[in-house]
Design goal:
single chain, Aminopeptidase, alpha+beta, two-stranded parallel sheet, elongated
């Protein structure tokens, strides 16, 4: 894409085949996504025997009030067409494996899916300030895996919606919910990026799968959008 842009031959339109539909194939097209920020928080304590609490500092106990506050924080009410920013803890690790040893550190990994009301930098500062408020001995490693994006021009997403309706009889809704996709990279060079693919009801679950019949239907929809684009008289604006 970078090379194509240098040659002034970057694509005008792009469909990412990410699973986008909620209940049935054809019900949802994604025309934007929230950003994604990952954090690895290490809270340090003092390891020792559980029977001598005056000699230890339990990092799990220290982190608990912070985690309660983070999990209950309302980051925003959403920014249409984006849903509200959300915070989820994905892993907590502490302990030596012995029942009578207070651990020396507690490691918490978490993710924030954020809309354009925030930036990665503003969220990082907010969470680090909360850690200081709780007087923690801590460090945080940050990784921004995606920035928010939104495909504002209506032409391509509307043509895709019509193609979906031509094949399935379903009028899809537009959405910016869900996880990240390669659309965040393609958006840098292609102004009209949308995501349309199979139902995502089993995404990241045990026995993740899609019905094979949806593959054939998707093929027809993708072919139909080509027909609508290349056999129409629209200029794409």
């Amino acid at each position: 894409l970078e090379v194509l842009a240098e040659r002034e031959a970057a694509p005008d339109f792009c469909i990412v085949g990410e699973p986008s539909c909620f209940k049935q194939l054809g019900d949802t097209i994604k025309n934007g996504r929230r950003g994604s920020l990952n954090g690895k928080l290490t809270v340090r304590g003092i390891q020792g025997h559980v029977a001598y609490p005056e000699k230890v500092k339990n990092p799990i106990h220290s982190a608990a009030p912070l985690l309660a506050e983070l999990s209950q924080t309302v980051w925003d009410e959403g920014l249409p067409p984006f849903p509200a920013t959300s915070f989820q803890i994905s892993n907590i690790h502490a302990g030596t494996g012995a029942v009578n040893v207070v651990p020396g550190e507690c490691i918490i990994t978490f993710n924030i899916r954020y809309n354009p009301k925030h930036t990665a930098a503003s969220l990082e500062k907010q969470i680090e300030d909360m850690c200081r408020k709780h007087d923690l001995d801590f460090k945080i490693e940050w990784q921004e895996s995606a920035s928010p994006f939104f495909s504002e021009k209506p032409y391509f997403r509307n043509e895709l919606a019509r193609a979906v309706q031509d094949v399935t009889g379903i009028k899809p809704e537009f959405s910016t919910s869900g996880g990240t996709s390669d659309g965040r990279f393609i958006r840098q060079w292609c102004p009209q990026v949308v995501e349309f693919g199979p139902v995502n009801d089993r995404i990241h679950k045990v026995n993740e799968r899609i019905p094979t019949k949806d593959i054939a239907c998707l093929s027809k929809i993708y072919f139909r959008i080509l027909e609508r684009i290349f056999l129409s008289e629209h200029d794409g604006n």
